[in-house]
Design brief:
The complex is a heterodimer of chains A (90) and B (570).
Chain A (H helix, E strand, L loop, with lengths): L21 H11 L11 H18 L10 H7 L3 E2 L7
Chain B lengths: L13 E6 L8 H16 L5 E4 L7 E6 L15 E5 L10 E4 L4 E2 L22 E3 L2 E3 L13 E3 L4 H4 L2 E3 L21 E3 L2 E3 L13 E3 L4 H4 L2 E3 L21 E3 L2 E3 L13 E3 L4 H4 L2 E3 L5 E2 H13 L25 H11 L56 E5 L2 E6 L2 E6 L4 E7 H4 L9 E4 L6 E5 L2 E6 L2 E7 L14 E4 L4 E6 L2 E6 L4 E2 L5 E2 H4 L9 E5 L2 E6 L2 E5 L5 E6 H5 L3
Parallel strand pairs in B: 1-2, 1-3, 3-5, 6-19
Antiparallel strand pairs in B: 4-5, 7-8, 9-10, 11-12, 13-14, 15-16, 17-18, 20-21, 21-22, 22-23, 24-25, 25-26, 26-27, 28-29, 29-30, 30-31, 30-32, 33-34, 34-35, 35-36
Classes of the chains: A mainly alpha (90), B alpha+beta (570).
């Protein structure tokens, strides 16, 4: 029972497939909704720190556990339908 | 709540709005009404008034658009971003834009307003029966002119009430043809068209000519979406073609086969294999009323709240009986103050109303009801299964569907599987609590298992064992309740809780090794937070709120429908 059936997946013409990794999706989300200030350029380490802070800020806004990490519930929240107005004013 | 930096707000209380265009998904009357109700959400708690303008510049200009729609913030296709709005001010400030790649409804599936016919524009009643067959969408059956129609009561043969559904063969909207219907075929840039087309436009809206030759006459209109029209894919606006062939197999309904995301799709021609024309099947859509009320909050000066139940929370979620959260009220009253003076008193009816007063909607609800059927069952509303939006559990006992809710149960039994009840749980199964989270019948021993919270009971006839703790079965103490049970094979049952499920060996009364497993890994395409899971007539059902997702033996979601209509047969 528990073995999933082998399904055939096809590529549907015209399908909007957002080929993004989870990290890319998160970065795009944090930028789009104002959690990361896109005007500031950062180097690698600073970027990691900032992303963690941004994630925490986003998690606080969404009422999620503030882990600062891209966990499953945060990723799920980022995939939810929502309003396009940024959460953090710029 | 949060306001925009500088507490941006209108400097006058008589705010104006203008609707610049409409979505093909919803009738303009329904759209107007949704926007009016969305404004009323805010005018009910502030001194603000909202006046609609039909020309010129209004404070709040409302429009639908797709992708790049003329401002610096393009939309992103279906799902994701639904809409946005600008805080109060001049120019684009205060305006609200809605993504027309979304499927706009009132949040519960297609809302189809009829035209012509004899129902005076009433909404379609789905499902309805016509000559013994049940229809859940508009149909062209019984007509030779190919115009889709629907009944506006539950039984066409009894009531004979009907109207025509949106169709380009009946009318267009926008454009310059005053709503005239499409003329097919028509000529555009020397080429002949037999259906609405996207050609010649960059905004993604389907249009047609309303005379035989657009090149000569230049009259056109936009095509309304049929309730059966697909969204997305490469055939948006066209209708599913049943049956259709996909990878050599014939399909009579929408399927998730071929996709990894569980979304239901269909071919719009008889053969996907040959034509590769497809789209997603219509779902419940997004409530224009709820999204508009949120956007208008921005247009009045409110930023996003971090309170999940507040209207100004950034994520969309459908709520049946909407009322403004105290956080939203505090926010808007911080900007504009509270409403003063008495509320207007509605005129009293001259004759007494009938017994359906409990069913009346408030102005804030997001549900538009079709004309009620002419007969109703004289039951107390609180005990009418058809008026419940959610059940504690649904299960099959002695081959009959049972619906449990707060001390009562209903069952579909008898030759015609009519809904019977309510019955008292305590009367039939003494010792059980009022709320049953899950239940199943062991097909081998016919013992009945009931779960409530972290306890379970086992009934053999009238004798009962329990309550016992679910931990005794090997379930972790972290789970708060068992939400669904699926009998699988001999002596095995799957128990669902949260996003996981476990396999119980009934004989050993122990959970098998290798569990829990994630529900969404094994059952793709169903809600991971289903609150009822059960098996009925060879299909597995996952219920969430008033909807069910039906899965076939190949674990493909082959139908999504209403518990109320399809399972309760209300």
């Amino acid at each position: 029972w528990s073995l999933p059936l082998k399904s055939v997946f096809v590529t549907f013409p015209g399908d909007v497939i957002k080929n993004m990794t989870d990290t890319e999706l998160a970065e795009s989300y944090l930028k789009k909704f104002g959690y990361i200030d896109t005007a500031v350029r950062r180097s690698g380490f600073q970027s990691m720190v900032s992303t963690s802070k941004a994630l925490k800020r986003m998690q606080r806004q969404m009422g999620l556990e503030e882990t600062g990490e891209l966990d499953k519930s945060t990723l799920e929240a980022m995939k939810q339908p929502r309003c396009g107005v940024p959460d953090v004013a710029n | 709540y949060k306001t925009f930096e500088g507490d941006l707000k209108w400097d006058h209380n008589d705010v104006t709005y203008r609707i610049l265009n409409y979505s093909p998904d919803m009738d303009s009357d329904l759209t107007d009404d949704a926007f009016a109700r969305a404004f009323k959400v805010w005018s009910d708690v502030t001194p603000l008034t909202f006046t609609r303008l039909f020309e010129g510049t209004a404070d709040i200009m409302i429009s639908f658009g797709k992708a790049d729609h003329g401002d610096p913030y393009p939309f992103d296709g279906e799902n994701g971003l639904l809409a946005h709005a600008y805080p109060p001010g001049e120019g684009i400030q205060g305006d609200a834009h809605f993504d027309d790649d979304e499927y706009w409804t009132l949040g519960k599936g297609p809302v189809v307003k009829t035209r012509y016919g004899n129902a005076e524009g009433a909404l379609c009643h789905f499902p309805f029966t016509f000559e013994g067959k049940t229809y859940t969408t508009c149909t062209t059956e019984g007509r030779s002119d190919n115009l889709p129609w629907c009944a506006t009561t539950a039984d066409y043969n009894r009531d004979k009430k009907f109207g025509f559904c949106p169709s380009e063969l009946l009318y267009t909207f926008g454009g310059n043809a005053n709503g005239a219907q499409c003329v097919f075929p028509f000529i555009f840039l020397g080429k002949e068209y037999d259906s609405c087309t996207l050609e010649g436009r960059s905004d993604g809206y389907r249009w047609c000519a309303t005379t035989e030759n657009f090149d000569n006459d230049k009259t056109f209109g936009f095509c309304p979406s049929r309730d059966t029209a697909v969204t997305g894919g490469n055939a948006e606006g066209e209708t599913c073609h049943f049956p259709f062939v996909f990878l050599g197999q014939s399909y009579d309904s929408c399927t998730s086969e071929g996709r990894g995301d569980g979304k239901l799709w269909c071919s719009t021609t008889s053969s996907y294999d040959d034509d590769k024309k497809w789209g997603f099947c219509p779902d419940q859509g997004y409530s224009l009323f709820l999204v508009a009320a949120h956007e208008f909050g921005h247009a009045l000066g409110l930023d996003h709240s971090n309170i999940r139940d507040a209207l100004m929370y950034p994520m969309y979620s459908y709520v049946e009986d909407f009322s403004l959260h105290s956080d939203d009220i505090e926010g808007i009253q911080y900007l504009y103050g509270p409403k003063r003076g008495p509320s207007p008193t509605p005129p009293q009816p001259s004759t007494p109303t009938t017994d359906d007063s409990d069913d009346k909607e408030t102005d804030h609800t997001d549900e538009t009801r079709p004309t009620e059927p002419t007969t109703t069952r004289p039951v107390e509303p609180t005990k009418d299964a058809c008026k419940l939006t959610k059940f504690d559990t649904i299960t099959v006992i002695e081959n009959e569907l049972h619906f449990f809710q707060d001390g009562h149960y209903w069952k579909r039994s008898g030759r015609d599987k009519e809904l019977q009840g309510p019955f008292s749980i305590a009367a039939r199964w003494p010792a059980l609590p009022a709320v049953i989270d899950s239940a199943f019948e062991d097909t081998l021993t016919k013992k009945l298992y009931f779960f409530s919270g972290t306890r379970f009971w086992v009934f053999t006839g009238k004798s009962v064992l329990g309550p016992r703790s679910v931990e005794k079965l090997g379930l972790p103490n972290s789970i708060q309740k068992v939400e669904g049970a699926l009998q699988r094979g001999k002596g095995k049952v799957l128990l669902f809780s949260g996003e996981n499920f476990w396999r119980l060996d009934i004989k050993a009364q122990k959970i098998d090794r290798g569990y829990p497993r994630f529900t969404d890994v094994v059952f793709g395409g169903v809600p991971s937070d289903a609150h009822d899971v059960f098996q009925y007539k060879g299909h597995i059902y996952f219920c969430r709120e008033s909807f069910y997702w039906r899965m076939n033996s190949r674990r493909q979601v082959d139908r999504v429908g209403y518990v109320k209509y399809d399972l309760l047969t209300c």
